Amino acid sequence: MTASDESTRPRRALVCGIGGQDGAWLAALLLSKGYEVTGTSRDANVVNRDGLRSLGIADQVRILSMVPSDFRTVLRTVTRSEPDEIYNLAGQTSVGLSFEQPVEAIESVSIGTLNLLEAMRHVGAPTRFYNAGSSECFGDTGSAVANESTPFRPRSPYAVAKVCAQNLVTNYRDAYSLFACTGILFNHESPLRPTHFVTQKIVKAAARIAAGAQERLCLGNIDIHRDWGWAPEYVEAMWLMLQQDVPDDFVIATGRTVSLGYFVERAFAHFGLDWRSHVQIDPGLMRPSDIREGKGDPSRARAKLGWQARTDVDGVIRAMCVAATPSVQRVGAPTPADVARLAA
């Protein structure tokens, strides 16, 4: 390829873990900006394409098989895709599951991140790297609001793995001058969330009950407090981080924190239901060490990236409930054209 060809070709992005909620929304964003998008899954033949199909982009994304904990497949994937930007969204995503499968959490998140960074260093191309961090790394901050300088105090194997991954990103950025950064994202939701995530579990149950289902929703601790944002907006922040002149880490949040009980109440109220008549608290669903408070300060992202959340928890609940309503004739999730209307 000549220098002229290189300057005129579309930008290429490698989205690791494209089968998840964020992977689908990010792929849609990148395609809208003219990127060539390659996604990865452990097995390209059985990757979950539901999110990509819901957004109408399944046939626009190339999928490659890659096992994040296997350096050989990581290096092969990076070499084949020749990306300008790598988005590392792969690995275990469930805090609760990490208590049952801690080795998988460590290997898929921290070792997977290390392998991607090593592959970048080995290839030597001017690739930019985004790492999906997590607000879980902060642990329980009590009444304090977490920012980029807040110490990490992880309280789950998932959070431990994410702390390790972020430290690796920082180390490779400093030691090898890689353009590598971490987005420390607080909770962000959309109708693309799998049903094992509590927000989708709540919304789907409320919709079924409103439609006549005779069931009770079992939940654990609803007195936890989180900052819930809208996932399509959060992937915009990921992209913006890789467009900066200097790589850096950013907290991404709405700045508003409410309890899970608030989420439950508002979701059931959307369907005209009193949640207290349909929800049962199950002590067996309590986690070994849960975080009571999660509060994020997104002011640095606003100042340096020009990013701020446009949708808070009320808009998130409304959009997810509308998408879950049986009379809404769609599969899985709203299309990008629906997003503004649903979250407004």
How are the SSEs placed, and which strands pair?
Blueprint lengths: L2 H6 L3 E5 L4 H12 L3 E6 L8 H5 L6 E5 L5 H11 L3 E4 L6 H6 L1 H22 L4 E5 L24 H20 L2 E7 L2 E2 L8 H13 L6 E3 L5 E2 L2 E2 H11 L8 E3 L5 E2 H11 L8 E3 L17 H7 L7 H12 L11 H8 L1
Parallel strand pairs: 1-2, 1-4, 2-3, 4-5, 5-6, 6-11, 7-10, 8-13
Antiparallel strand pairs: 9-12
Helix pairs in contact: 2-9, 4-6, 6-7, 8-10, 8-12, 10-12, 12-13
Largest beta-sheet details: 7 strands, parallel
Proportion of β residues?
5-15%
Query: Helix-strand pattern, N to C?
Result: HEHEHEHEHHEHEEHEEEHEEHEHHH
* Structural Rg: 20 Å
Give unreliable regions as ranges: 328-337, 339-344
At CATH's second level, what is the architecture of the largest domain?
3-Layer(aba) Sandwich
Question: Average pLDDT across residues?
Answer: 90
Quaternary assembly: single chain
Structural class: alpha/beta
The CATH homologous superfamily of the largest domain is named NAD(P)-binding Rossmann-like Domain
What percent of residues adopt helix (DSSP H or I)? 40-55%
Count of discrete domains: 2
Q: Trace the largest sheet across and list its strands.
A: 3-2-1-4-5-6-11
Number of strands: 13
Tags for this model:
13 strands, two-stranded parallel ribbon, 344 residues, seven-stranded parallel beta sheet, disordered C terminus
Report on the structure:
With 344 residues, this protein is an alpha/beta fold. It folds into two domains: 10-188 and 229-252, 3-Layer(aba) Sandwich (Rossmann fold); 195-227 and 258-293 and 312-343, UDP-galactose 4-epimerase, domain 1 (Alpha-Beta Complex). It contains 13 helices and 13 strands. The strands form four sheets. Strands 3-2-1-4-5-6-11 form a seven-stranded parallel beta sheet, sandwiched between helices. Strands 7-10 form a two-stranded parallel sheet. Strands 8-13 form a two-stranded parallel sheet. Helix 6 (102-123) runs parallel beside helix 7 (157-176), helix 8 (198-210) crosses helix 12 and helix 12 (313-324) crosses helix 13. The radius of gyration is 20 Å and the shape is globular. The termini are far apart.
